[in-house]
């Protein structure tokens, strides 16, 4: 098996700590040729020399997909990649793996998928393989589909975090799936959020990694983090002390082994939003496919999710813009590159179709004024 790997490394401190070395050692066991591409600064390039066949240091733009695109399309490595049986794209956004990559690859050998990952989300709207670890097999490499997509869609200097999710994680998945390629994952259809519910992720979904950002201000929940670490310590042969050191140095989270042993009492449960509370992806697709002009009602996280799921690709349904309630103050004139309108500006237009992309409570608040419109689609069944 000729397997080439590209490992995208970003470290805020510029230092390669033991958690990264652990991942590189595990990856090196399953790839014949490993390219490490560093986004931004690294203090000691020699720290990587024992694990890489090639090392590239680039400007920190375009996140991981920008790095992959640079290596795949604009370096001499394309010959090595094209002749491979599998191409592995892996980034440094996680701790682990807590089981060997060898074990994961051995299990996935039984899959007839053309591309796969460690975990996939296949809920109603969000359907994709999580992009921290992706494997593309010969059928895709020979067709050139991956290379065309990266060349046509990735403008690394224009990418922000959400664009990466839309274009790389969502867009590439659906482009390949719609082209007839089969997908799979080591753990399919996860029910817990990697960031917000790390304990559920390792316990219920049995994902053999933890995302580093579970310690960030945006996501950190002490009880879930402590319980996740306690579970990893109990279940796997992984030195969680290295995770604790990294969490303190990068995020300022001060946890100790003793704290983990005392405080690990989180009750494991699935995330609160279940599949049966929302309409299906297919319903939304059918709705927008027959519309000439579509507006998304909302400018928050749900609106971003809807945009990412349905309006990221070339030849997409004609998205005209985003809509907010009349009593909402508009600070920015554009959202995701599209204009923002007040509801009163579009409510009397007969050619308008609305996808209401709000959370459940906010949807209830606007339901009475929207239910009389001819072309409106709500995400929530109730």
Percent of sequence in beta strands: 15-25%
Which regions have little confidence, pLDDT < 50, spanning 5+ residues? none
Gyration radius, rounded? 22 Å
Helix content: 25-40%
Mean pLDDT: 91
Given the C-alpha coordinates, what overall shape results?
globular
Features:
382 residues, alpha/beta, globular
Describe this structure in words.
This protein has 382 residues and is of the alpha/beta class. Helices cover 37% and strands 19% of the residues. The protein contains 15 helices and 16 strands. The chain has helices spanning 18-28, 63-74, 78-82, 101-108, 138-143, 145-153, 161-178, 198-203, 222-235, 240-251, 257-263, 281-289, 301-310, 343-346, 360-370, and strands spanning 3-9, 33-39, 54-58, 86-91, 94-95, 115-122, 127-129, 133-137, 183-187, 210-211, 294-297, 319-324, 334-335, 338-342, 353-356, 376-378. Strands 1, 2, 3, 4, 6, 7, 8 and 9 form an 8-stranded mixed beta sheet that branches. A 6-stranded mixed beta sheet has the order 13-14-12-11-15-16. It has a two-stranded antiparallel ribbon with strand order 5-10. It is globular, with a radius of gyration of 22 Å. The relative contact order is 0.10. The model has no long low-confidence stretch (mean pLDDT 91).
């Amino acid at each position: 098996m000729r397997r080439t790997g590209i490992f995208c490394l970003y470290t805020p401190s510029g230092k390669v700590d033991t958690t990264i070395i652990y991942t590189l050692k595990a990856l090196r066991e399953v790839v014949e040729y490993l390219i490490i591409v560093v986004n931004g600064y690294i203090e000691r390039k020699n720290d990587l020399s024992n694990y890489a066949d090639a090392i590239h240091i680039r400007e920190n733009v375009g996140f991981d997909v920008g790095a992959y695109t640079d290596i795949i399309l604009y370096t001499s490595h394309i010959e090595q990649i094209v002749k491979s049986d599998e191409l592995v794209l892996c980034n440094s956004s996680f701790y682990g793996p807590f089981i060997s990559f060898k074990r994961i690859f051995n299990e996935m050998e039984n899959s007839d998928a053309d591309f796969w990952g460690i975990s996939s989300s296949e809920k109603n709207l969000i359907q994709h393989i999580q992009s921290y670890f992706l494997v593309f097999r010969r059928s895709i490499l020979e067709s050139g589909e991956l290379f065309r997509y990266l060349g046509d869609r990735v403008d690394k200097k224009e990418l922000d975090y959400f664009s990466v999710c839309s274009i790389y994680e969502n867009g590439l998945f659906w482009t390949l799936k719609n082209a007839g390629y089969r997908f799979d994952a080591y753990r399919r259809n996860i029910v817990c959020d990697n960031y917000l519910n790390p304990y559920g992720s390792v316990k219920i979904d049995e994902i053999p990694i933890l995302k580093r950002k579970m310690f960030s201000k945006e996501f950190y929940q002490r009880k879930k983090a402590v319980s996740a670490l306690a579970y990893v310590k109990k279940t796997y042969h992984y030195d969680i002390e290295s995770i604790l050191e990294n969490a303190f140095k990068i995020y300022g989270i001060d946890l100790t082994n003793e704290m983990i042993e005392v405080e690990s009492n989180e009750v494991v449960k699935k995330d609160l939003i279940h599949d049966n509370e929302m309409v299906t992806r297919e319903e939304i697709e059918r709705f927008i496919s027959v519309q000439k002009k579509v507006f998304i009602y909302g400018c928050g996280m749900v609106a971003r999710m809807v945009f990412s799921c349905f309006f990221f690709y070339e030849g997409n349904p004609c998205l005209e813009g985003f809509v907010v309630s009349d009593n909402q103050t508009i600070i920015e004139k554009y959202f995701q590159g599209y204009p923002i309108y007040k509801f009163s500006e579009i409510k009397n237009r007969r050619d308008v179709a609305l996808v209401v992309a709000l959370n459940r409570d906010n949807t209830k608040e606007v339901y009475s004024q929207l239910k009389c419109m001819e072309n409106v689609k709500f995400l929530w069944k109730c």
